[in-house]
Amino acid sequence: MKLADRVNQVPPSGIRRFFELAEEKDDVISLGVGEPDFSAPWAARTAAIDSLERGKTSYTANRGRRDLRQAIADHVTRYDQSYDPDEEILVTTGASEAVDVAMRALVDPGDTVAVHQPSYISYAPGIIFAGGEPLAVPTRMENDFKLTYADLEASGAADADVLVLCYPNNPTGATMSRDDLTEVAEFAREHDLVVLADEIYAALTYDGDHTSIATLPGMRERTVVFNGFSKAYAMTGLRLGYALGPADAIGAMNRIHQYSMLSAPTTAQFAALEALRSCEGDVVEMRTQYNRRRRFVLSRFNEMGLDCFEAKGAFYAFPHCGGDDEAFAEALLQEQNVAVVPGRIFGEGGEGHLRVSYATGMNDLREALDRIETFVS
Amino acid sequence: MDAKRELLDLLLSNAREDTTDLARQTGLDAAEVESLIAELEADGTVLGYQAVVDWDRVDGEHVQAEVELNVELDRETGYEEIARRITKFPQVASLRLISGDYDFAIDVEGESMHDVSNFVSEQIAPIPEVTQTVTHFVMETYKERGIEFGDRDDDDRLSVSP
């Protein structure tokens, strides 16, 4: 069958090849997983079951249940974000759908969308599917993979229309403080960029509270924020996220959402509502455990002589392997049965690095790092 | 969270973690971890380290019972005195003074039901202040000290994902 050009423009994901290699082997300890090892909090799961038992299986309002939007509005005040649940919040099928409809609602054919790299692999395809042109803005290890004014300037982002910002970052684990964000906000204001801020890992920061760029002066009106339940509440498979933004942007996104998705999964909306109501303790406990593993992994890498900056968010470490990351990851998998993801898969600036997920229990983590140490020495 | 509390939490979830790994997870150095644990032990905060055992998987009989105990106090005898007498028996795995319909909750362990009921009737019931005992034998354990029993779920996540 003849395929649309926009599909042919997007190569298959580099993750896929590593997945297939890892699947061929037995006894693999995988540090290549981009999702929590915990299950959703039990209270959220029982709320989902309860909603099914009560027969709550119909569509919801396009924008999501009103009570859930209200709960989201209340919840995000912790990040000093203030959004009207009727006009400025859209509940989506995972934050991924929010990213997709935002691209389609805000990017015109030929528009340039700047994406700092290394970053999550779905942005560039989303831009291409929307008819836009991705512009890579490499970030650097010497800056702890934070995005700087200079990085934006050097890569020509001044001429871009939109900037995608993802902190805490997948794959590097980098975070950005209010000070760090100030110069990015300044750049966006100076060059009139719309900012798409993917804050899906906001709850997983280990050096103080997450700051949203939307809360900086003059940024709220030019920023759409993505967040969701997948990472914070370990609900990846339930597929529930949301977008926060000015009413016109959210309204435009909703227009696409209502014709494509209609509404986010109803069962998941009930789980999410309960998650916001009663599962803060679960989030704190998961964050505490990730933080212990984070310290463990960083200290193991530094002990074995792999250069690793101090990642302070998400659940990834991003050590430099001292050579070709792809060859390293492949040999590590073949010789020691440990799966990690080569950094180059996440774009420019990722070469030579490995994405190591610590969303894995301590016993496996300990064993995997022992094997990596054996491999390195 | 202060360092001592952090260590306590780690030991509560896995008391076999070695000093080096405790240090790596907390950001303390190994010597600090050792001295903090020594303090926790010396001041009586940490009283011991024990395994959580699924007795169904161990050869031989092992019986557990929860015993409700009612007592009548008098001027010379308080809860403390009664508790002191009861804790001394090795068959008593735990003893708590609780609120509600009865006074003490005792976990008793033995090699057979006969063992346990004998112990209750011959050692506990005759204590002068004890007015009533009700023994509940444990039929199945599903969770103990935060650890679930039975088969564990496999990790069914994709081995590599974005």
Automatic annotation (TrEMBL), chain A:
<dbReference type="InterPro" id="IPR015422">
    <property type="entry name" value="PyrdxlP-dep_Trfase_small"/>
</dbReference>
<comment type="similarity">
    <text>Belongs to the class-I pyridoxal-phosphate-dependent aminotransferase family.</text>
</comment>
<dbReference type="GO" id="GO:0030170">
    <property type="term" value="F:pyridoxal phosphate binding"/>
</dbReference>
<dbReference type="Pfam" id="PF00155">
    <property type="entry name" value="Aminotran_1_2"/>
</dbReference>
<keyword id="KW-0663">Pyridoxal phosphate</keyword>
<keyword id="KW-0808">Transferase</keyword>
<dbReference type="InterPro" id="IPR015421">
    <property type="entry name" value="PyrdxlP-dep_Trfase_major"/>
</dbReference>
<dbReference type="GO" id="GO:0008483">
    <property type="term" value="F:transaminase activity"/>
</dbReference>
<dbReference type="InterPro" id="IPR004838">
    <property type="entry name" value="NHTrfase_class1_PyrdxlP-BS"/>
</dbReference>
<dbReference type="InterPro" id="IPR015424">
    <property type="entry name" value="PyrdxlP-dep_Trfase"/>
</dbReference>
<dbReference type="InterPro" id="IPR050596">
    <property type="entry name" value="AspAT/PAT-like"/>
</dbReference>
<keyword id="KW-0032">Aminotransferase</keyword>
<dbReference type="InterPro" id="IPR004839">
    <property type="entry name" value="Aminotransferase_I/II_large"/>
</dbReference>
<comment type="subunit">
    <text>Homodimer.</text>
</comment>
<protein>
    <recommendedName>
        <fullName>Aminotransferase</fullName>
        <ecNumber>2.6.1.-</ecNumber>
    </recommendedName>
</protein>
<feature type="domain" description="Aminotransferase class I/classII large">
    <location>
        <begin position="27"/>
        <end position="372"/>
    </location>
</feature>
<dbReference type="GO" id="GO:0006520">
    <property type="term" value="P:amino acid metabolic process"/>
</dbReference>
From TrEMBL, chain B:
<dbReference type="InterPro" id="IPR011008">
    <property type="entry name" value="Dimeric_a/b-barrel"/>
</dbReference>
<dbReference type="InterPro" id="IPR019887">
    <property type="entry name" value="Tscrpt_reg_AsnC/Lrp_C"/>
</dbReference>
<dbReference type="GO" id="GO:0005829">
    <property type="term" value="C:cytosol"/>
</dbReference>
<feature type="domain" description="Transcription regulator AsnC/Lrp ligand binding">
    <location>
        <begin position="70"/>
        <end position="141"/>
    </location>
</feature>
<dbReference type="InterPro" id="IPR019888">
    <property type="entry name" value="Tscrpt_reg_AsnC-like"/>
</dbReference>
<dbReference type="InterPro" id="IPR036390">
    <property type="entry name" value="WH_DNA-bd_sf"/>
</dbReference>
<protein>
    <submittedName>
        <fullName>Transcription regulator</fullName>
    </submittedName>
</protein>
<dbReference type="InterPro" id="IPR036388">
    <property type="entry name" value="WH-like_DNA-bd_sf"/>
</dbReference>
<dbReference type="Pfam" id="PF01037">
    <property type="entry name" value="AsnC_trans_reg"/>
</dbReference>
<dbReference type="GO" id="GO:0043200">
    <property type="term" value="P:response to amino acid"/>
</dbReference>
<dbReference type="GO" id="GO:0043565">
    <property type="term" value="F:sequence-specific DNA binding"/>
</dbReference>
